[in-house]
């Protein structure tokens, strides 16, 4: 019996933040496997703001080509190998992979793929969130680059999102006073009451004054998921020889032209600040290390894994639009 594969394709290039109408669902028969290929059933789609960048025309780079109109949208998925002509990926293998937003994917192994443990100890969606690229971004950004210390003040933008919700918890485990920047009063309450943040700043007018009020001793470490004018405000709040770790720049993903950068870069000089950007997939060889430490914290009850989940491929576009509209709390996934 012929199996139809349903895919979310890019219907048009988003203008600013994505909306549901930028995408549509199409179906096509599954192709026959060629030599060295394997077929995956995708169980979960991870909705990540960073992939918005490659929806712009001419946005291709060494990470991904620009996404084509009418073609399946690329992203991260949790997959199970269900048929294989590739000895490296036998049937039953679970993967976190950069495939398309579709129910089934065919690969020859050249895609970005992380093989998961043989027996999944935690619910599968956790391997898209706290035990996937999301949690690993927080892990590497905090433990390797930021290295918060007891008594320091840590400021995190996008604190109510998938990465920020984990980064804040790691900061608290390290003994730092932790402040999150969010977009609404509901998220401010959520990160303080549910995630243990010490204080929250609501993004809006006079952000610098609000940061100064929430961080009276200045900021020692800024973990940034947003960029733009928010990054500018944080630079002016930094203590001497403070550290800035740049994980994302969601404020500029929807712009055809580069988002305005901070206008106060000379303060980086006068305050002797260190700034480092990073991408988690360049630490692919350390995924097992990161996943085991994050899993240990889950087992010990030191870490919670907040998740915003929808069901069905027809809801992928809605979930992605909700992510940019700030309606989602924690990691956003769709179960297929």
CATH superfamily of the largest domain: Medium-chain alcohol dehydrogenases, catalytic domain
Query: Biggest β-sheet, characterized?
Result: 7 strands, mixed
Proportion in β-strands: 25-35%
Q: In terms of structural class, how would the helical and strand content be classed? A: alpha/beta
**Separation of termini?**
21 Å
According to DSSP, the number of beta strands is: 15
Overview of the structural elements:
The chain has 336 residues and is an alpha/beta fold. 46% of the residues are buried. The strands form three sheets. Strands 3, 4, 5, 6, 7, 14 and 15 form a seven-stranded mixed beta sheet that branches. The chain has a six-stranded parallel beta sheet with strand order 10-9-8-11-12-13, with helices on both faces. It starts with a strand and ends with a strand. The chain has eight helices and 15 strands. Helix 5 links the parallel strand 11 and strand 12. Helix 1 crosses helix 2, helix 1 packs across helix 7 and helix 4 packs across helix 5. The model has no long low-confidence stretch (mean pLDDT 93). It is 24% helix and 27% strand. The protein has two domains: 155 residues, Medium-chain alcohol dehydrogenases, catalytic domain (Quinone Oxidoreductase, Chain A, domain 1); 149 residues, NAD(P)-binding Rossmann-like Domain (Rossmann fold).
Task: Summarize the structure in short.
With 336 residues, this protein is α/β, with parallel strands linked by helices. It has eight helices and 15 strands. The strands form three sheets. Strands 3, 4, 5, 6, 7, 14 and 15 form a seven-stranded mixed beta sheet that branches. It has a six-stranded parallel beta sheet with strand order 10-9-8-11-12-13, with helices on both faces.
């Amino acid at each position: 019996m012929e199996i139809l594969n349903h895919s979310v394709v890019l219907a048009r290039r988003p203008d600013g933040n994505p909306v549901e109408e930028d995408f549509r669902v199409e179906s096509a028969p599954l192709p026959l496997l060629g030599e060295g290929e394997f077929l995956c059933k995708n169980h979960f789609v991870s909705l990540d703001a960073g992939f918005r960048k490659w929806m712009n025309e001419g946005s291709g780079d060494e990470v991904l080509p620009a996404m084509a109109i009418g073609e399946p949208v690329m992203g991260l998925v949790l997959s199970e190998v269900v048929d294989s002509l590739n000895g490296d990926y036998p049937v039953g293998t679970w993967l976190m992979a950069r495939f398309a937003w579709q129910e089934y994917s065919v690969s020859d192994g050249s895609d970005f793929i992380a093989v998961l443990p043989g027996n999944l100890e935690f619910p599968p969606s956790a391997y898209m969130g706290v035990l996937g690229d999301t949690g690993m971004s927080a892990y590497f950004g905090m433990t390797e680059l930021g290295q918060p210390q007891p008594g320091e003040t840590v400021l995190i933008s996008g604190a109510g999102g998938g990465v920020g919700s984990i980064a804040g918890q790691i900061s608290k485990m390290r003994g730092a006073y932790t402040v999150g920047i969010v977009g609404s009063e509901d998220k401010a309450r959520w990160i303080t009451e549910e995630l243990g943040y010490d204080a929250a700043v609501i993004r809006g007018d006079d952000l610098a004054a609000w940061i100064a009020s929430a961080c009276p001793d200045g900021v020692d470490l800024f973990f940034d998921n947003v960029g733009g004018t928010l990054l500018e405000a944080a630079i002016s709040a930094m203590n001497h020889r403070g550290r800035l770790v740049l994980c994302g720049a969601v404020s500029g993903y929807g712009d055809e032209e580069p988002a305005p950068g901070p206008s106060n870069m000379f303060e980086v000089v006068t305050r002797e600040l260190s700034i480092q950007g990073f991408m988690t997939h360049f630490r692919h060889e350390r995924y097992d290390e990161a996943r085991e430490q994050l899993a240990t914290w889950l087992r010990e009850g030191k870490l919670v894994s907040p998740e915003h989940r929808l069901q069905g491929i027809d809801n992928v576009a809605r979930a992605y639009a909700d992510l940019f509209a700030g309606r989602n709390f924690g990691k956003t996934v769709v179960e297929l």
